[in-house]
Each structure stands twice: as C-alpha cells, then as structure tokens.
Amino acid sequence: MSRRSRARAGLRRASVAASLLTVGLLCDSAAALPRLEAPPMGRPGEPGSGLPRDEAGKGDRDRLKPPKPLRPEGPEELEALGELEMLYDRYERATKVAGDTAAHVLTLEAEAARAALGGRYEAEIDRHLKAAAQLREQAIARYRAFIDKHPDDPLWTAELTFRLAELHYEAESERYAKAERDYEELIAAKVAAANGEAPEGLPPAPVADYRESITLYRDVATRFPRFAHIDAALYMMGLLHFEADELDESRQALLALTCAERFPIPAADGSNLVSVAAFKPGDYSGCAPIRAHSKLVAESWLRVGEIHYDLDELDPALEAYTEATGDPDDPLYDEALIRVAWTLYLQRRFADAAGKLDDFVRYADDRRGKEEAEGATALRDDAVRYIAKCYVEDDWDGDGAPDRPSGFARLDRDYSERGEERHVPEIYAALGDLVAGDSDFQQAIRIYETALQRWPLAAAAPKLQKKIMDAYAGLRDQDGVLVAREALAASYIRGTQWFYANESKPDVIEEAMALVEEALVATAVERHARAQKLRADGDPAAADEYRKAAVAYEAYLGRYPDGPNSYQYRYDYAESLFYSGQFLPAAEAYVAVRDSGTEARLQADAAEGALFAYEAAIEAESTAGRLTIPDMPKKDQVGEGPYEAKEIPALLVAQQEAYDRYVSLGPDPALTPSIKYKAAAISQRYFHFKEAERRFVRILDEHCDDNAAISAGFAILDAYVLRGDLAGTREWTQRLLDKGCGTGEESQKFAGDLKTLDNAVRFEEANVLFEQEEFEAAADRYIALVDEAPKDPNADRALNNAAVAYERIGRFKSASEAYKRIYTDYPDSELADDALLRSGLNHVRFFEYDDAVKAYLMLAEDARFAASEHRDLALKNAADLLDSTQQYKKSSELYLRYAGKASDPAEQAEASFRAAQVLRKTDDDRAIEAAFLAFVGKYGSDPSQAERVVEAHLRIGQARAGRGDGKGAEKAYQESIALFNARGLKVATEAADYPSEAQFLLSEYTLSGLLDFKLTGRGKALTKNAKELFDRVVEASKSYDAVLPYRRIEWVLAAMYRRAYAFEVTAIKMREAPVPRELKQYSEPWFAYKDAIETAAQKFEEMAIPLYEETVKRGREYGVESEWTKRARERINIYKPEEYPLLHEPAVELQLEDRR
Asked: Are the beta carbons of 32 and 298 closer than 8 angstroms?
C-alpha cells in the first residue's frame, strides 16, 4: 500500500478525531493523532472504548505432555490392546459425529436467533440513524443561519463554522459510503449476469465531494487566525485536499500549520500556492507553527514529507521528515526517524543513512516490549539489514572509486567497540548474509567468526553459528559443516554460559533452541552414518565415531525427548553406545526403546540389543575384577548355611529383566528355553530359591521336551538338598520321575539319578514337620517315637522337641509333662536341667505356683543338677514365687542365698535388698531392721548402691518407730538425710523421695510437741506458755519447710498440709486457753480479752487457709490425689465451702492427730 493510499485509509478517522477535538471531547494526548488514527478512549473492556479487556496469563499447552501409554506384556496383551484401540476409534468417531451434529444444530439455532434479534432491532437502528441524519440536517441549517446572521461574531462564528465543516464532512461521508455500497451491489449484479464474462457498460465509481468542508475550514482559518483550533482546521483542510488529489493545496495547508510565517493558507483559487520548484535547502528549518504546542505538528510534517517522497522530491521530503523528529518522546518519532534514514539511503548518503538507521534500531531496542514501540519493533530487523547494505556500498564519498577502508573493514572499524549493544552482532550477521549472497562464503565466514569471537554471549550468537555452518555448506566443505554444526549443537543448549546470559529473553532462547534442535539431530545422524561406514570397512576408528554420535544423540534426546523422530533416535543412540564399547549405558538405552509406549517397530530389536549389551557389560566387569558371579550352588561346594538370599547385583537384576522381556516378546522360540534357564540361574546363584524354583518349574511345564528342562530339574533338587529339605527333595524327586523330561540318552540318565536320590531322603520326618511349623503333628510324632523306643539315644531330645512344639501351640500342660519325663526318666540327660526350668515356667503360666516352686527348688538344691547353668536362675525364680505366695521369710532366705551365689555384684546387691524389702510385708519390725542393717553394713560404702542405702536408713527408722523406738527412728531418719546429701544425690529425682519422707517424719516429731502442748496458767505463767506455744509452731513450720528443697511433690504437699494444720491447731489452742479469773465473766474487760484472743487466733487461721488452698491447687496442677490433698480440701471447705465443695460431709471440728 502506497503512502497516499494509507493516508486515505486513515482520513475518516482523522477527521472525526479533529471534530471531537474542536468540541473539547478529545484529550491532549490524542490531538497528535498518531498513525492517522484516533487513540482508543475509556477503560479497558468498556463498550465503545476500543480497548481490550486485560487477559490473565494462559498456560502453555505445549508443556503439558500426555503420559506415555503402558507397554503390552506379550502378544496376547498386544492383540487385546489392538482390539481396545479399535473400539476406542469407533467410540471416538461416534462421539465426533454426535458432537458435529450438536454443533451444527447449535449453529443453526444461533443463526436463527441472531436473525430474529437483527430483525427485531434493525428497524430501531434505522429509525435512530434517520433521526440522527435529520438532526444533523437541522444542525447544519441552524449553524448556517447563525453564521449568515452573525458572520463576524468573535465568540461563536469560528467555533460554529468549524462544527459546520465537520457536519458537512460527516454527511458527505455517509453519502459516499452508501454510494459505494450501492455501486458494489450493482457491480456484483452485473458480474453475475455476465456469466463469467467481463461486464460491460459499468457506470463510473462514486467520488466524495468535500469542497464544502474545505471551504468552511479555509474560512475559519483565514478569518479567525486566533481560533483555538485553527491547527485542527488546517490539518483537516490538508487531509481533504490530499483526498481530492490536490497535492500542492494539501502540502501548503499543512505547511501553513507547521511553518505559518513562510507559507500562507492556500487560497480557493490557488493563487498563493508556493511551488515546490522554488524549494531551497533550509526552507523548512526554524519554522514556527501557527499554534504553539500544537499536537498536530509532527503528524503534519510527516504528511508533508510523504507528499514530497511520493513525488520523488527527496530533499524537501528529508527536511520535512527531519522536522518531525524534533521530539524523541513524540509517538511518531520512530516513524519520522526511519523515513529520514530511508530518504538518506535513497540519496546515497550512506554514512548519514547508517547513522540514522543505527539510531532507529537503538530506539527500538530501548523501548522493546512497550506498546508505543510496536511500529519501531516491526521495522527494526529491516533497519539492521539496511545498515549492512550501507556498508556493502564501497563508495560513500561519491567520487566513483572504492573507499579505503570499505565493506567489512569499515564496519569493524565503526562497531568493534560496541559489542555490548544488542544489534551490533546482528549487523555483522546481516553483512555476512549480503556477502554470502554474492557467493563469497569465505569472507562471510570470516565476518561471522569475528563477531562470534568478540561477542560469544550475544543474543545473535546462535544465528551467527548457523550462518557459519550454511557458509561451509555453500563451500561444499562437509568437515567444516560438521564442526560448525557440532559447535551450534553444544554451545547454546540449556546450561551453557550463553543460555544463562540470555535466559531473560524468551524469544531469543526459543529461536536458539530451534536451531540447536536441528543441529543436534543432524550432527548425530551424520556421525552415526560415518561410524557405520567405518565399521563396515573394518576401521577401528569406528568406535570413536560411534562415541561422538552417541554424545550427539544424548544431547538431542536430553533436550528434545518427545520429538517426532525420538523413537528412532533413541534406538540409534543405543546402537552408538553399544558399538563404542559403552555396554551398560547401551543396555539402558535399549531398555528405554524396548519399553517405550510410543511405537513397537523396534521393540524386538531393542530387546535383543539389551540382552547382548548386559551380557557384554557383565563380561567386562568380570574381566576387570569388579564383579564376581558365583557358581550354581550345590551341596559340599558351598559353605555351611543358613543359605539366606543374598542381594543380587543390580547389573544381574537388569540382565534377568532383559531375559524376561526378550522371552515375553518371543522373537526366537528356539532360544526361549535356554534364555529362561539363564534368567532362573541368576536367582539360584544368589539363593533366591523360591523365585528360582518358580522359573525352573515354568521351564519344566512349558519346555519339558527340551534338555534345558533336565538342567532346571537338577537345579531344583540341588536347592532342596543344599537346604536340608528332605521332604521337598523327596517330593520333587517323585515329580521329576513322573514328568520324564528331556530327550535321548540325557533323559534316561536323568531318570536313573532321580531313583538313586529317592532312597536317601526317608528320615527325620518329625524334624521336617517341626521346621514347617506343623507343631502338633510334630509333637505327636516325637511322643510316639519315645513311646515306641524309650531307649533310643535321641529319646530325651525327642521329648524336649515335643515340649517345645507343645509350647508353640499353647499346650503348656502337655509341655510340662514332656519336660517331667526328661528329668525323671532321663535324669542324666544334658537336657534335664533345662527341662526342670521350662517345667517351672509352664507351671507359672497355669498359676501352679507350688509345683513351680518345687521344680525350681529341685533344680536349685538337688545335687544332680549342681553343674547346671540354670541353678541360680531357678533359685531366684523360686524366691520371686514365694514372695507372690506370701511366704515372705522363705522368700527372703532364698534371695539371700541367691545373693551369695550370683556372680554379678549388681545382682548380689539387688537380691540382698529384695531380701529386706520382702520382710516389710511382715509385722516383724526387728527382722526388717536387721535385714536393712545387714544391707547397710555390706553396701554402705558402695557408691553404686547409695540410693538403696539412703532408702535402707529410712526403712530402719520406720521399723524402729514401729516398735516404739522414737529416738532410734529419728537417728535413722537423720542418717538417711545426711547420706543423701553426702553422696551428692540429685533432688527432684526418685532418689529424693527417701530423704523427703525422712524429713517429713522428723517434722512429725516436732509437730507432736505442738499437739501435746496445752495452753494453761494465769498471768505471767499464761504469757510464758503462750510464748512457748508460738515457738513450737514456728519450729514445726521450719521443720516442714526443710521438706521442700527435695522437690518431691507428694511430700511437698504433705508438708504444706501439715504446716497449715499446725497453724490451725495453734488457733484452736489459743481459743481454748482459760480467761484470767480476775476478769468477771461477760464484763467489758472479759469481752475485750476474748476479742483479743480471737483476733490473734484468726491470724493463725489466715496463715493456714492459703496453705490449704495451695495444697489443693498444687495437687490438681500436678495431677496428685493423695491423703494430704483430700484432707486439705476438707479443711478448706470449712472456710470456703462454695469454692471447695466436698462429695461428703466433712468433720466440722478439727480432730487433733499424732502421726509419729
């Protein structure tokens, strides 16, 4: 489209915009009318605004890869899958037909609804359009009437003349549009009537007549030079002249806007037109527009330049374009700048053109991604190419001779230091393209490589490398092509330095990845083809070429795993790995192809390749000494058991799977039996007997007529013999005889060997049953064996095994009877003592404690078992049982005996302490004291027994208290406390329980002094006794305070309660004190005395109440419910019954108690 036609296309919008401008409805930023169009107005998405609604980011569907389909396990499953796919195809076709039908129905219904809606509103729309036309005609008439009546009104004439021009323009535009529609309908009818022939008698096309509008615009501009929108009037005048092909009038109208002092407004008769022939350089420079700061200046200069440019008037066009570039922030700056550059290029002013083109490219790059730079971005690449074209020209000074330097040398001189600018490497590339276009590929390569060496991280680097490759192709240099392609494939993939330098430019990355993909696959394919040729020629260099091909395939597949030909390339990758000696990676690559759900074309080949690759890898590992494969296990050829399954090396696991997959695909039935045997042998070599047997049985069942079945049968028998499984050996011997597998002499020899083996497996059936956990059957057979042959050397062992079997099934009574037969019928058996011990344990299970004690004592005391290792344990078990049966003194004696025999010092101390503890359950306080004294005497200095010694002193004190020795008890308590502190035992531990209790009991003695004290006497005696009462309560309180540092909650609560109790008792004793006789009863002094006593007593109660409360709260906090918390709640309930209710009626009166 020419510039003139583009200007016409934008004419109507520009006119409407100018009209809106005159009535103040267009913002200032719109007044410039960029790109010949009014900018959209309003909020995004608002009807009529012309602005689209912002869209949220959308997901990239290309990143959503469907999961790979499951591979079929065998031919049957493959056939079934094919049938399923056929059914699915039928369903899909039916679904598509149904969907198409539904869509067609919906489309018809939508069209019908749209037609109904259009018919409904068409009349309404026509009515509104006609009404609008009528109103416009009325407005035209009224504006004309006003102007005729007031031709020179300073306020309104200019404004209404401008509006009248716009209304005439709109009316003519509608008339012209309708005439064009009618003309097109007429032409269409004539063409249809001509039956394909050229129609004749066509009327002339309609022409728009904007003369009335032009006249009005000229009038307002001429007569009202200070009119606020005079610039818009001249602009519209210029556009309408241009539409009428009146180019001189159009140019001068626009110049009257932009250069008012030099170019007058064109007269109606054209008498004042300035001819372009009179143009001199500088005529357009330094011009002042008719209205300062007009937004239409740049647009008008561009249109002036366009008119000159279309008429090949390049000098004035250049000046006009240059004037349009005055403001870099103007929306039309980029358009003006590129036209300046192109004009300079046409004038062969290559240096200036290159500079302006460079400015344009940098302008576009600086504003890249911004909406206002869309036009510049569209022309950016063309500008880069034109820069290169400038440098291709070798005569810049116009003297007819090539310049020095020129071409690439001149470009490198100007741009070698500007590589950080994005477009510079592109200019080198563009110059190289132009040189290559002239078939100078060597020079092109030099240009490309220079740019790459200087700016390897430039965004254009992948393109440059591709151009180098193409240039080598132009030279038919295949080696150069290969090297260049490999460089392209390796230097710009993900993870390279170039990638990280450009990862913020998604368009650059995407373009580079496309080049890399093509290069990677081409490199791989070419290397592979070379390797195949070398291998066919027997050249040892083939291995290295295969290795390079594998590297290329790997790079390609790693970057493009789901390409359209990736299935074939994966197989080629595996082949390249295999023939380059990389057997394990080759095997893994074959497996990937074999198990791919993409295609099945190469599945059998890949399965065979995986098999061979794993075998080659295992052989290489074995040769290198990194892998040792055991022989097939046979009795007397391997060490003693147990023959637990060993971990199969990962390489052999993979090989086994390769065998299995090869068999499932069935490419060669003749090899199937031997392949299956090899797979089963892997499990057998590592003692996976169950899995191996499953595989060998499959060979026997499916290939019995093949001699591989004989090897499978021997392998099964070897496994049972090795593990001592006689029943299994016997069973399989018979099964193999029945099958009769194999052919020829091998089959006959196999049958003979089986019969020989069958005679060696008929013994120890009971043991087999036991090992199979058939315990009841095994026990019955053991007992039957003893009953039938009581003198058998293994009779005692049979009884022992029977007893163990009975225990396994919970028949403990039967087990005890079997054990009893051992130590009664076979007392000299090495199993007799164990039988006694087990017998005792089984008696305990049935609560037969007396029988258990007898058994334990027999083992512990009978001389026949003096050497038994269970003797001491039996003694301890007997002591435990006597304790449980309340035979405490006998239990204590046995504990002491056990302590004397135990070899472990800790066991000795434990038993000695238990001997004393057991006696605490009796009423014999002297025996208890003696036992604990004996323990202290023996272990008092043993640091490991410090906690027990502290407890022993406490128990000694309690025993003494029990028999009324208070002094002795106090001494023992004090020794317990002193020893705890001396041994550095920790507070807040269980060990602190004992000094806590001891201190509490000592405090009870102090409290007893308070409880026993009675406040009596008169006068001074009463005063003295009262002081003593207070001293005793203070002493008791301090004594109980000594319990707290041990931080044992039970005794802390007890001490708190007893302190409160002491205070409350004191209050009671004060109230019970006698009133002095000299005070007459009920006299005023008597009441004063009673009030004083009551006040003092309440103070002690006030000290008691918080302690009772704290005892209750702390008990609840620590989850402790004890005698002390219950009593505290009872006491506090008396004072605060609502806060501390009881579940029973408490004692209302405080009962004095003595807990000494």
From this structure: yes
CA distance linking residue 4 with residue 219, whole number of Å? 26
Nearest-10 Cα torsion for 928, 931, 933, 935: -140
Task: Give per-residue pLDDT as tens, 868-915.
Answer: 667 667 767 776 777 777 788 787 777 778 777 777 888 878 877 887
Instruction: Say how many C-beta atoms besides its own lie within 10 A of residue 174's C-beta.
Output: 14
Residues 779 and 748 both lie in one domain:
no
Are 534 and 579 a contacting pair, CB within 8 Å? no
CB-based burial label for 505 (10 Å; 0-12, 13-18, 19+)? middle
Whether residues 798 and 776 share a domain: the answer is yes
Contacts of 332 (CB under 8 A, 6+ apart): 32, 34, 35, 298, 299, 302, 324
- The set of residues, in sequence order, having a beta carbon less than 8 Å from that of 623 and lying 6+ positions away, is none
Query: Measured between alpha carbons, how far is residue 578 from residues 86, 560, 583, 943, 1153 in Å?
Result: 38, 22, 5, 74, 99
Q: What angle do CA 1052, 1054, 1060 make, to 5 degrees?
A: 105
Q: List the one residue out of 1033, 1008, 1002 whose CA is nearest residue 1104.
A: 1033
Helix (H) or strand (E) holding 415: helix 407-415
Query: Token pair 């009535």 is at which residue?
Result: 23
Tokens of 216: 């009005």
743, 707 Cβ separation under 8 angstroms? yes
- Per residue in 313-323, pLDDT (tens digit) is 999 999 999 99
Neighbour-count burial of 885, counting CB atoms closer than 10 A to its CB (0-12 exposed, 13-18 middle, 19+ buried): middle
> What residue numbers bound the domain in which 703 lies?
650-654+662-763
Q: Please, are residues 259 and 288 in contact by the beta-carbon 8 Å criterion? A: yes
- Residues 6 or more apart whose Cβ sits within 8 Å of residue 706: 673, 699, 742, 743
- pLDDT tens by residue, 537-563: 888 888 898 998 888 888 878 877 887
1026 and 1155 part of one domain? yes
Spatial contact of 993 and 1048, defined as CB atoms under 8 Å apart:
yes
Tell whether 936 and 805 lie within a shared domain.
yes
How does DSSP classify residue 74?
S
Per-residue pLDDT of 190-201, as tens digits, reads 888 777 677 777
Distance CA 623, CA 900 (A): 66
How many domains does the structure of the chain reveal?
4
Residues 511, 833: Cα–Cα separation, whole Å:
89
Task: Report the C-alpha gap between 219 and 144 in whole angstroms.
Answer: 13
Report how far apart, in Å, the C-alpha atoms of 475 and of each of 39, 318, 483 are.
53, 43, 14
pTM: 0.46
Instruction: Give the pLDDT confidence of 635-693 residue by residue, as tens digits.
Output: 777 777 778 888 999 998 998 898 888 888 877 788 888 988 998 999 989 989 899 98
Residue 715 contacts residue 685 (beta carbons within 8 Å): no
Residues 996 and 1067 in one domain: yes
75 phi/psi in degrees, rounded to 5:
-60, -40
DSSP 3-state of 733 = helix
Q: What three-state secondary structure class fits 706? A: coil
Distance CA 1112, CA 1045 (A): 20
Give the CB-side neighbour count of residue 1023, counting CA atoms within 13 A.
2
